[in-house]
Amino acid sequence: MSVQEPVCGSGKKIFFTDLDGTLLNDRKEITPGNQKAVDQALREGHRVVVTTGRPLVSALIMAGRLGLMRKDCYVIAFNGGEIYDCFRQASVYRRTVPMDLVKPLFEEAHRLGIYIQTFSRTEVISEEERPELHDYAARTLQCFRIVPSAADALEEEPCKLLAIENERRNVIEGFQAKLLREYKGILDCYFSNDAYLEIVPDGVTKGGAVRWLCSHLGIPIENSVAAGDAPNDIDMIEAAHIGAVMCNAFPGVASHGDYITAADNNHDGAAEIIHKFILEE
Predict the structure, then answer these.
(1) pTM to 2 decimals?
(2) Sheet holding 90-94, edge to edge
(3) Helix (H, G, I), strand (E, B) or coil at 185
(4) pLDDT reading at 254 higher than 60
């Protein structure tokens, strides 16, 4: 497929990159080639934005490990629900799920036997200690707390809830359809992988965050490049001027991109994108 280069004459470029399956390998580590490319992009004055469905505290841990807690680096967390300036160490944008919906969402998930959790500023909040919780906490380097009532435990409205169902796809898809129908205009929900249903405020997407941050920074959208692999990356891939899809992407994602990598996330696929569309060769 043909790809139009970002506009170089109107300023430096901005690179929005997913973490899991994109910038990180299957061991949740950045490959040396990806790290070198990111470092070079920053030295040349481009911006790098970690763009993930993970909660902010988890995304910041990863940004720290990647050396991205510095000037020209940002984190988009919660699928676009929160945007954080790594240099100033402050959030510049935040959207939340109404508090009065937390209890009924948990109750409906429990009724269907679906595991569900939400997030405070520092930890995962769950009403059940299940394998899904332990697996999620280990994957995202999160602490968790088991409480009788998530709604009562939260001190402020959360940016998202996450429902997890590893086996009964028809059940969690039915849950998704019910939420989209009953909370139209209030909530949105979409999958970030085969098991994770992301429940967020209506209008919150990675793509929306791409457009907002470019406007906030005064960067033309024509200078943006995005990289992802999962269904929740599609809106971001479509929003950026160049949407790059990892060759290891989930089925159906590639058709939304402008470019598909030759290398996967274990073999410097993100570096391939950076060299082709960000760096001045």
Answers:
(1) 0.92
(2) 90-94, 82-85, 73-77, 47-51, 14-17, 224-228, 242-245, 259-260
(3) coil
(4) yes
